[in-house]
Specification:
It holds the Pfam family PRISE. InterPro entries: NAD(P)-bd_dom_sf, PRISE-like_Rossmann-fold. This is SDR family oxidoreductase. α3 runs parallel beside α5. 42% of the residues lie in helices and 12% in strands. It contains 14 helices and 11 strands. The chain is an alpha/beta fold. It is globular and about 60 Å long. The strands form 3 sheets. It has a 7-stranded parallel β-sheet with strand order 3-2-1-4-5-6-10, sandwiched between helices.
């Protein structure tokens, strides 16, 4: 059966891995982004602004996707603005797709802020008991993830297509156009420490250093997205998706240090945020990039220290349960240290971070 995927956010971490995966499985893939340059070879890139329904209608008029994968968002200063903007974006797309017809399945990627709350209250208050399960009730706070779900549920009921909601933890993967990526940020930080002799110091909280956590490799998420979109048992389900292993950062930090040929610094016992450690590192990185012939001398284009600080500074344990997907038939597994190492190797091949020599 011929399957045509429309990936919305096709140049991001999720979209890049999903496009690579689906192309390898014989899908026709259309990649939609505001600036679709740098996408995956073999995709059909289209430029569109989800805030412009007229322009979106023109772009999608001849594209009749059987499956839609929505992996984008627009960040704003307040959650009220996030709700307004992101709800509008998804609603505009759903309205155009309704007019075109033919959609069999719509997959929405959100995340564990479904359980933890939005940025305004992220990691504040008492979190749900771990592991987070899909059956947990929504928090009694505004959250644009909830708005996206409600828009999707209403459209699916109205138009008769199936849906799935995917809730990954921190996503590790490659995307040239998305700096909100812990993997690439830590690769840049480790490379900087090796080049300058700065101690490789864990920037986060004691709860993260000593406690258990998990994460989501983008390639595993891609397989989860295709599985849910093509498996009748997963139709109309909200699903957590994580690698399947658990670890403590006190262990993972040593694994990352070893890969880069570093000695990890002793845990300082308190936060040492990357945003503070690297506040003046731009000129030094530009020098490193020049000496090693790297493709990007601007630090702010390849790393997002504030975003990684947010994940590593949480004051409580964060684990997601995968039982629901397992019971429905998804058996994939990925070790998280290998996910980091594969990404680091790719960043070296693409001259984003320096070689080992």
């Amino acid at each position: 059966m011929s399957r045509k995927a429309l990936i919305v956010g096709g140049t991001g971490i999720v979209g890049t891995s999903l496009a690579e995966h689906l192309l390898g499985r014989g899908w026709e893939v259309v990649s939609l982004a505001r600036r679709p340059s740098g996408g995956v070879d073999g995709t059909v890139p289209v430029a569109a602004d989800l805030f412009d329904p007229g322009g979106l209608r023109v772009v999608l008029d001849k594209i009749r996707p059987s499956h839609v994968f929505y992996a984008t968002w627009s960040r704003h200063p307040t959650e009220a603005e996030n709700i307004r903007a992101n709800g509008t974006m998804l609603r505009n797309l759903l309205d155009v797709l309704r007019a075109n017809g033919g959609v069999e399945h719509f997959a929405l990627v959100t995340g564990l802020k479904h359980y933890l709350g939005p940025f305004e209250m992220y990691a504040k208050g008492t979190p749900p008991v771990t592991p987070f399960r899909e059956s947990l009730p929504r928090l009694d706070v505004p959250n644009f993830y909830y708005t996206l779900e409600d828009e999707l549920f209403a459209a699916a009921e109205r138009d008769g297509f199936g849906w799935s909601v995917h809730r990954p933890h921190t996503i590790i993967g490659h995307a040239a156009s998305n700096v909100m990526n812990m993997g690439s940020t830590l690769a840049v930080y480790a490379s900087f420490c090796r080049e300058t002799g700065r101690p490789f110091t864990f920037p986060g909280s004691a709860a993260q250093w000593y406690g258990l956590t998990d994460m989501t490799e983008a390639r595993l998420l891609a397989r989860h997205l295709e599985w849910a979109a093509t498996t009748p048992a997963a139709r109309n389900q909200a699903l957590n998706v994580v690698d399947g292993d658990v670890f403590r950062w006190s262990w993972m930090w040593g694994r990352i240090a070893e890969w880069f040929g570093l000695e990890p610094a002793p845990f300082p016992g308190e936060h040492s945020p990357l945003a503070e450690q690297m506040v003046d590192a731009g000129p030094a990185w530009a020098d490193i990039a020049g000496r090693h012939g790297l493709v990007e001398p601007r630090l702010d284009r390849i790393a997002s220290f504030w975003h990684t600080d947010g994940d590593l500074s949480r004051p409580f344990e964060c684990l997601a349960d995968m039982s629901k997907s397992r019971e429905l038939g998804f058996r994939e597994y990925q070790t998280s240290d290998r996910a980091f190492f594969d990404l680091f190797a790719r960043l070296r091949r693409e001259r984003i971070i320096p070689d080992a020599a």
